[in-house]
Amino acid sequence: MKELGLVSCQQPTHRYKRGGHEHVAIPNYLERQFSVTEPNQVWSVCDLYLDG
Question: Which domain of life is it from (predicted)?
Fold first, then answer.
C-alpha cells in the first residue's frame, strides 16, 4: 500500500489513558477547595495549546 500511495479509510483506534494517580511534578495546591471569600484569591487558566 505504501508503494502505491494508498491509505486506509478506517481510522485507527486510540486507547485512552485512565486517570487515578497525581502527577508528582505538579502538586494540587487547591485540593479542590474552591470556596473563595474575596476576589482575586484564586485564578484558573487553561494552558492547552493545540498545534496544527
Answer: Bacteria
